Amino acid sequence: MSNAPQKAAETAENTLADIVSHAKEYGFVFPSSEIYDGLAAVYDYGPNGVELKNNLKQLWWRAMTQLNQNVVGIDAAIFMHPLTWKASGHVDGFSDPMIDNLDSKKRYRADVLLEEKAAEYEKNGEKERADALLAEMGRLLTAEDLAGVRQLIIDEKIACPVSKTSNWTEVRQFNLMFSTQIGAVAGDSSLIYLRPETAQGIFVNFLNVQKSARMNIPFGIAQIGKAFRNEIVARQFIFRMREFEQMEMQFFVRPGTEDEWYDKWKETRRRWHEAIGLPAEKLRFHDHDKLAFYAKAAVDIEYEFPFGFKEMEGIHSRTNHDLSQHQQYSRKKQNYFDNDINPETGKPYGNYVPFVVETSVGADRLFLATLCQAFQEETITEGEGEEQKTKTRKFLKLHPAIAPVKAAIFPLVRKDGLPEKATEIFNALRHDFRLVMEEKDAIGKRYTRQDLIGTPFCIAVDHQTLEDNTVTVRHRDSREQTRMPISELRSYIGEAVSFSRIFEKL
């Protein structure tokens, strides 16, 4: 029997471990409150991580609100009236099917265990078997047949990764919302929730936005914000966390046009991921096997992480369920009056509750996908003749537009006026780009440090610079060096790091 799947799993685990280690060492992601031994499934973004994440968020925001005249943004509060979550169904139905192993005392999501088994079948070339398993899981979950889900896990001989046994409990539903109290006095306080998603803040503001921004159907409302879920099975680094950030857009459309807009946003969002540097062969669409009762269609854009293809963004055709629910619970109309002429009747379309097409991407998952894709190792040759040697070079191949640092400025030596000249260049460019200036260590070590955080350009200031105002620009990916006047740096770097280089691919 081949041990290829086991070796592939070990390689993937080692790759992820390398990325986690790199993220901490170079200031991208730290375990939260690490000096107190951390808090499971909660992470902090370091100096380089927050820059990369902010660049990704800004890129998404501008792609939504700047490139689309019919998309505007909001920033809704995390706390919302409790009836919001009753209307949305989260109070009664926001649960995951959980199963415990009696030997290891570990708890797992039942659907994740089955999805991982299906992924194993697919890797072994048994796609039909994988599809059949996912279809059966979807049928059982839709029917809320939790006993059937447990039996399916047993029939598939799925064992606990820790105990290696199949001594499973019954499958139970576990609500994922965090609750807290609001009010100054305990007796007068009332139960509220930390929002488990950002979408409802958009829905309850539908009419506020439509009227104040003078929007006509079709139009979208975009939002970036934190959400909170009491994930029992939180693992794979920042892929699944209890506190996370969503970048979401709800697109309101005329009933009957939702299929067209659903297909359009599917392709638009996939192109966006490819434009920022995620290759087409590492992206795929995965249609949902289990649809929410109100959903017309749902698909995930999955990226091939070191631990397999996993969801990064969801596109959903949600019908008019959300607005209708809020209309019912708030007793306030959520209608839109459409003045456009219906060609079939020759009259205005009139009043209706709009349908919604949603795109929702996890900022943290996008960050992780970007980091995984950028993490490169290559063998290079240095020196000539007998002194020639090969070594492994690590670097982050980030698109210059999203790199945390755009350029590093290095005086060749710490004397002869070179640090002063480097400071002059730094001051001339710092209003346009995020820069660093380093004087310590040999210039080769400084290049290596910048490679490891993904800086696209390093600018060397040498004695010739003092004579003719030229510098050497070293390129991260190719390691090639270009001599150019200082006066050209702003336009040269600006051209490479502009969001326009990404937008022109859309």
From TrEMBL:
Transmembrane segments: none annotated. Its EC number is 6.1.1.14. Pfam families: HGTP_anticodon (PF03129), tRNA-synt_2b (PF00587). InterPro entries: aa-tRNA-synt_IIb, aa-tRNA-synth_II, aa-tRNA-synth_II/BPL/LPL, Anticodon-bd, Anticodon-bd_dom_sf, Gly-tRNA_synthase/POLG2, Gly_tRNA_ligase_bac, GlyRS-like_core. One of its GO terms (molecular function) is glycine-tRNA ligase activity. The lineage of its organism: Bacteria, Pseudomonadati, Bacteroidota, Cytophagia, Cytophagales. Catalyzes the attachment of glycine to tRNA(Gly). ATP binds at residues 229-231, 239-244, 362-365. Homodimer. It is an enzyme of class 6 (ligase). Substrate binds at residues 109, 197, 244-248, 358-362. Belongs to the class-II aminoacyl-tRNA synthetase family. This is Glycine--tRNA ligase. It comes from Hymenobacter tibetensis. It is found in: Cytoplasm. Gene3D superfamilies: 3.30.40.230, Anticodon-binding domain (3.40.50.800), Bira Bifunctional Protein, Domain 2 (3.30.930.10). Residues 18-400 form the Aminoacyl-transfer RNA synthetases class-II family profile domain. It comes from the Bacteria. The gene is glyQS. It catalyses: tRNA(Gly) + glycine + ATP = glycyl-tRNA(Gly) + AMP + diphosphate. Keywords: Aminoacyl-tRNA synthetase, ATP-binding, Cytoplasm, Ligase, Nucleotide-binding, Protein biosynthesis.
